């Protein structure tokens, strides 16, 4: 009798532990953002809330600082289920859905209000497009307005052509834009940029101010060019397979928390990018501008890329939709 009771208790405990293990879900999440950055701090804050609200049944295991490789590496690992999700810039987003890069066109946006208006209006469209590809778009996570940085001062457009400018490897938008302007580019993974600056392989990069700080690129450049050349989109993608494996209540928690915290993240990132400009200046970075005439020529050349990419990277109809939304945004601000 005692042995039967002991066996029954053991079986109950074993069953309970199996159920417990089965009911716990871990979202393996990768980002190139280093520890201590706004990105990581916000993710960790969100993770605590997810764990608390799910009673420990759902949590994120975060791999920061590019330890899982750059965005293209992460996407490959997502395909084999080694990683379930990640934070991506337009480069990563565009490898799955090329047309999303319409949001990264040079001199498309001038203000954060314009960015918010277009992003909100286009979210459902892109949500459906990613769903068809096997991914869930949990929200936008912008990098912010992007500036050109260099080790040597370029006083004219012709001076810019002498720079050895990094271009993100396999980024068709960067390649098309910089070639259209007439700049010399050297394609590299983002994880190789700092070393390449140190050894002189490149002498110019492009980044939001916060990115230049977080990735330590600012330690190897002396000049930052204003105004920004583009606005860098970004977003969080999770494999549809992982999301579909979750019970309905955990799906809701996951989506709700990402929606909440990505909005918080975007707000914090904008504030941090403004603070980063001041930090860069205090560290000796000189903020300069090209002559108005040269800048106007660059904008004209860059905007030709908009139409050149239509029909290849995205449809003309999608480009027209975004342009019309920008007009609506401008009218709404009047």
Task: Characterise this structure.
The chain has 334 residues and is of the alpha/beta class. It has one domain (23-333): D-Maltodextrin-Binding Protein, domain 2 (3-Layer(aba) Sandwich), CATH 3.40.190. Helices cover 54% and strands 19% of the residues. The protein is built from 13 helices and eleven strands. It has helices spanning 2-22, 38-53, 71-79, 90-96, 112-133, 157-160, 172-181, 193-199, 209-214, 240-245, 248-282, 292-309, 316-333, and strands at 25-30, 58-63, 85-89, 135-140, 144-150, 164-168, 184-188, 204-207, 223-232, 234-239, 286-288. A five-stranded mixed beta sheet has the order 2-1-3-10-4. A four-stranded mixed beta sheet has the order 8-5-9-11. A two-stranded parallel sheet has the order 6-7. The longest helix has 35 residues, at 248-282. The radius of gyration is 23 Å and the shape is globular. It starts with a helix and ends with a helix. Mean pLDDT is 92; it is low at 1-21.
